[in-house]
Automatic annotation (TrEMBL), chain A:
Pfam families linked: ABC2_membrane_6 (PF06182)
InterPro entries: ABC-2_transporter-like
Name the UniProt record assigns to this protein: ABC transporter permease protein
Lineage, uppermost ranks: Bacteria, Candidatus Woeseibacteriota
Keyword entries, A-Z: Membrane, Transmembrane, Transmembrane helix
Gene source species: Candidatus Woesebacteria bacterium GW2011_GWB1_40_101
Transmembrane regions: 20-40, 113-130, 142-164, 176-194, 230-250
UniProtKB/TrEMBL annotation, chain B:
A Pfam family it matches: ABC_tran
Keyword Nucleotide-binding belongs to the record: yes
Alphabetized PANTHER family for the sequence: ABC TRANSPORTER ATP-BINDING PROTEIN, ABC TRANSPORTER RELATED
Record-level Gene Ontology MF annotations: ATP binding; ATP hydrolysis activity
Protein name per UniProt: ABC transporter related protein
PROSITE patterns, alphabetized: ABC_TRANSPORTER_1, ABC_TRANSPORTER_2
Keyword Nucleotide-binding listed: yes
Domain of life: Bacteria
Keyword annotations of the record: ATP-binding, Nucleotide-binding, Transport
Segments forming domain ABC transporter: 11-258
Upper taxonomic lineage: Bacteria, Candidatus Woeseibacteriota
InterPro entries hit by this protein: AAA+_ATPase, ABC_transporter-like_ATP-bd, ABC_transporter-like_CS, ABC_transporter_ATP-binding, P-loop_NTPase
């Protein structure tokens, strides 16, 4: 455990080296919130208007919630794994008594902590500028379920990204392509652009069988009280099954990948 | 444990896709990739005793680095048996990894954006080195390699030589029993090379560490290794003590003479092959068996001020081995 505490510390330091990159990344996030906020604010300019079952207060809470969710779930350094595999840097870790998955998960946690601190700060400021109506979930059980689903989202994203990184073991030069592909799925099907429940019911049903809605959308729905206790528990279970399936897939891919790993360039 | 490293009939093949040059070539290799099997190692067998320092020599692409990577658990062998400290390297058990280190002169493990001391601290945690032991080793290594003043500077701002010394510290903090060094002196100036060589020599002596070293720099090999393994195209051409390599492959010896006054060079040519002539120095190459007679003749018939008999440069011998001028009849084990 102490190993990973050191990994956490050094990752945090590393993030600080690229301060400007980090700040610009945050600025981009703030601008994105502004953009989406004004888009929906215009749609809901008539206060009594309800679109797709969302009124002004709910949609704006969704957007603000999304900003925090993204900081927690998708802030990740694990995208670098494909690069490490293709340029052979992975060798450095294979040579050491360290678990590569735990190592990257720790680096993710460091990145998430830093992003979360900034996201909370930004959202607070934006809250005072934009003065959106905000919804606080009072039910402690739902809050616990929300936190559980949030953790599931983090793990799911970690496994998904790592699985797509594994592509680089077989095709070192093509490591990035599949990851961009994944990003599109995460953004659309995860509810990063619009709440998924505005889609036709049939599509939604199919979508809930994939792991993507459990990244942002479902945790936010639980928080907003749009899912009942039973439905929330069911969603948590589905996410749990996906975690097991993806974890197992990753393990198998990792073992097969190492057997063909060429340790190039080193 | 009587042998630290055992390699038996080791084979490693790589599958590579050949790419043709140019844009059309790139497109055609996407549409119909031409795959080729590269036989990096073909039936390699050797073993190394604990505490031995062995030089691994061979031209580019001979399979040296591939062997080191298999022995440190990075690559999966196609077939054959390997054992290091009684472990199968491929399993990469923590107890195994804690006892080995692989240093590659070309690449680094130090965190590029942070001072080296941060990587050292991280390694301390990863290798679970007790604080006191860590402080002692660090102090000793920093002193020996004289890098005190670079510890707190971002690695990216250091020169290659400074970085290489720090790399070595990062690789040795956990006091590995087995050390794989791949071109450790590549790109270093002469002084840095010497420092590094002396350090490797001392480390081997002090900790009884088993060291397998590859290098194109023959000084590294001559200074450090008593035993050498020469490999080419994935096969062992020679395995034995350095002197034996010399006596087996160097059919000739070198006589260097300093003449006290200019003499008839034509006459000298009857004694041996003149390799270089720059008055007063003449360098001759003569068959090993007749070197004593040749020297006596020179001393008797020429105005000689000084005469030395030497082995030909090791590079030349190795070159001959690779060129196949003198293929070995039997490979000693």
């Amino acid at each position: 455990m102490k190993k990973y505490l050191s990994v956490f510390k050094i990752s945090f330091q590393q993030e600080f080296v690229y301060r400007l990159n980090f700040i610009m990344w945050r600025v981009r996030n703030v601008l994105q919130i502004f953009l989406i906020f004004f888009l929906w604010d215009t749609i809901f300019s008539d206060p009594g208007r309800v679109v797709f079952g969302y009124d002004r207060a709910k949609i704006l809470t969704y957007i603000f919630g999304l900003a925090i969710m993204k900081a927690i779930v998708t802030s990740s350094r694990t995208i670098d794994v494909a690069g490490e595999i293709s340029d052979g840097k992975l060798s450095n870790y294979l040579l050491k008594p360290v678990n590569y998955f735990k190592y990257w998960f720790t680096r993710d946690v460091a990145s998430k902590s830093l992003n979360l601190i900034f996201a909370v700060f930004e959202v607070t400021i934006l809250y005072f500028i934009l003065k959106p109506p905000f919804f606080f979930q009072p039910n402690p059980l739902l809050l616990v379920l929300f936190l559980t689903s949030l953790l599931s989202g983090v793990l799911l994203y970690f496994f998904l990204l790592f699985i797509f990184d594994m592509f680089a073991m077989w095709y070192p030069e093509q490591g990035w392509g599949p990851i961009f592909f994944l990003f599109i799925f995460v953004e659309f099907l995860g509810g990063g652009l619009f709440p998924l429940d505005i889609l036709p019911a049939a599509i939604q049903k199919g979508l809930y069988l994939t792991p993507f809605p459990y990244l942002y959308f479902i945790p936010l729905q639980i928080y907003l009280g749009k899912l009942g206790i039973i439905e929330s528990l069911w969603a948590t279970l589905v996410a749990g099954v996906w975690i097991l399936v993806l974890g197992f897939t990753l393990k198998k891919l990792w073992q097969a990948g190492l057997a063909v790993y060429k340790s190039e360039g080193r | 444990m009587d042998r630290a490293i055992i390699v038996d009939h080791l084979v490693k093949n790589f599958e590579v896709v050949e790419r043709k040059e140019g844009l059309l070539g790139a497109i055609s290799s996407v549409i119909s990739p031409k795959k080729k099997i590269v036989h990096a190692l073909q039936d390699l067998s050797f073993s190394i005793q604990p505490g031995e320092l062995v030089g691994f020599i061979g031209p580019n692409g001979a399979g040296k680095t591939t062997t080191l990577k298999i022995l440190s658990g990075l690559l999966y062998p196609t077939s054959g048996f390997t054992q290091v400290l009684e472990f199968d390297p491929w399993e990469r058990r923590n107890e195994f990894l804690k006892q080995i280190s692989l240093v590659m002169g070309q690449k680094n493990q130090l965190w590029w954006d942070l001072p080296a001391i941060e990587t050292f601290e991280l390694n301390r945690a990863i290798y679970e080195i007790p604080k006191r032991e860590y402080n002692e080793s660090l102090k000793e290594l920093v002193g020996l390699l004289d890098v005190e003043k670079f510890l707190h500077i971002q690695v990216r701002r250091l020169s290659l030589g400074q970085r290489m010394r720090l790399e070595l510290i990062a690789a040795l903090l956990h006091k590995p029993k087995i050390l794989f060094l791949d071109e450790p002196t590549i790109g270093l100036d002469l002084i840095a090379q010497k420092t590094l060589r002396e350090f490797i020599y001392d480390y081997n002596k002090k900790y009884q560490a088993t060291i397998l070293l590859t290098s194109h720099n023959m000084d590294d090999v001559v200074d450090l290794a008593r035993r050498v393994i020469v490999i080419d195209e994935g096969r062992i051409l020679f395995d034995g003590v350095l002197e034996e390599l010399v006596s087996r492959y160097a059919k000739e010896k070198i006589i260097k003479v300093y003449l006290s006054k200019e003499d008839d060079i034509k006459r000298i040519e009857t004694i041996g092959k003149v390799k270089r002539l720059a008055f007063p120095q003449v360098i001759l190459s003569v068959p090993r068996s007749t070197v004593a007679i040749a020297a006596a003749e020179l001393l008797q018939n020429f105005p000689i001020e000084d005469l030395t008999i030497e082995e030909p440069p090791i590079e030349e011998i190795i070159r001959k081995v690779f060129k196949g001028e003198t293929r070995p009849k039997n490979v000693s084990k």
